[in-house]
Structure formats: structure tokens, C-alpha cells
Amino acid sequence: MTNLVYSCQKCGTCCFEIPNQPGAKRIPLYPEEVDKLISIAKEYNIRFAVKEDLVFPDELNSKIIVITYRIILEPSGHCPFFITDRGCSIHDHKPYACQAYPLSLKRLDAFQFEITIDPLCNFVINNYEELASKSLKELEGIFIEEFPKAKRFYEKNKKLQYKILKLEAENKIKIAREVTLEDFNNALKKWKRMELRVKVKKGELEE
Ligand code: SF4
Ligand code: SF4
Q1: What is the mean pLDDT of the chain?
Q2: How far is ligand 2, taken at its centre, from the CA of residue 184, in Å?
Q3: pLDDT band per the 50, 70, 90 thresholds, residue 207
């Protein structure tokens, strides 16, 4: 049993790049989140740009399937929606990754993810010993608001995974399982893009 309950220290660290790793902070966005943030950025006159993040080469159609993008950080190393002294300026429209933070999804292989804790959060650093021994069930009681959001984040990835496998089973796409770096880079240069989108309702896994 633990009395530990997550409380954000509002230090803003999670909106900045990782120290000594310029540009390394990864804020993944699904394509529909990019659409939403483009219009918010326009409204608030914020410079917002993304680059591709999780992609799969589809050998059958010679296309790059885009699952997620990532936010390009400001030259000073923070998310463009971060405002000094105020923190996040899009609190009600934060991407999944930020809503769930400091819980995040750890990629196990091309298709498998698991819910984990980001060791770079200052709350996590300050309580690391205690948190390191906790089960997923116990984390649910510590990260009361964030855990359901991390679960939705996980469900969304799971649903994308199902969609890819279904499209493969129907012979509509063929994801390269083994590809050299050279071939992958060539495909990135030459092939057109196709975004994969799914909707997830609370507690729902199937389409
Ligand atoms: S969207 Fe908000 S919470 Fe997420 S990294 Fe940017 S400023 Fe921080
Ligand atoms: S690093 Fe952790 S404690 Fe600091 S603002 Fe981000 S979530 Fe809150």
C-alpha cells in the first residue's frame, strides 16, 4: 500500500528538450492532433511545425504509412506552445502524450507498446525509489487522472496496430519487416505518404 499520489511540480521540464541532447524531446502527435494544433497555432499566431515520427514502409503500394508526427521544438529548446511564467498555453487541447504525462508509452518493437513512467519528470525523479517497485495496478492509484489518459493513448496505438494487421491480412498493404537503412532512407525520399487514422472512445478497443 502507498500514500503516494502524483502532484505536478509545475517545473515545466517536460516541455523542454532533454538536457545535453538537443532536439531530443519527443512529443508524438497523431495526424488528427496535428490538424487541431495547426488551427490553434494559427489562431494564437504561434509558429508550429512537425516532422514525421513513427512510420512504416508499405512495399505493396510504395508508400510511407505515417502513424505519428513529432513537434519541432523552438530554437531555445521548448515546445512552441510553452510560455515562460505560464506554462502550457493549450491546456484544454494538449496532445494525448502530454495529457498522460508523466506516464508514457514505451515502444517494445514495431507494433508493441507498454505503459511506463518517464524518468525525466521531476516528480518521478523525487520519488523514483518508491515508483520503481510499483505494479501497473498500483500506478493507477498514484497517477489518478493521468492513468486513464495513458490507457486511452495505449488503446489508440493498439487500434492502429489492429488496423495495420487487418489491412495486411486483406492484402491491401505489406509492411516491410526487414529493411536495410539504405532502402528505408530511399523509400523515405521517394515514396508518397499515407496517414493512418483511427478513433477511440473511452474503454473501446475494437472498431
Ligand atoms: S503541448 Fe503543452 S504540455 Fe505539451 S509539451 Fe507543449 S507546452 Fe508542454
Ligand atoms: S516534469 Fe513532471 S513535475 Fe515537472 S511540469 Fe512536467 S509533469 Fe510536472
Answers
A1: 89
A2: 36
A3: very low
- Phi then psi for residue 191, to 5 deg, are -85, 150
User: How many Å apart are CA 97 and CA 115, to the nearest integer?
Assistant: 11
177 is written with which cell numbers?
519487416
**What average pLDDT does this structure show over 142-149?**
95
Q: Which ligand is nearest to the CA of 145?
A: 2
Best probe residue, ligand 1, of 82, 118, 149 (max atoms within 8 Å of C-beta): 82
Q: Is the CB of 126 under 6 A from ligand 2?
A: no
pLDDT digits (tens, 9 = 90+) for 48-80: 999 999 999 999 999 999 999 999 999 888 999
Q: How far is the CA of 13 from the centre of ligand 2 (A)?
A: 6
Rounded CA-CA distance 56/167 in Å is: 13
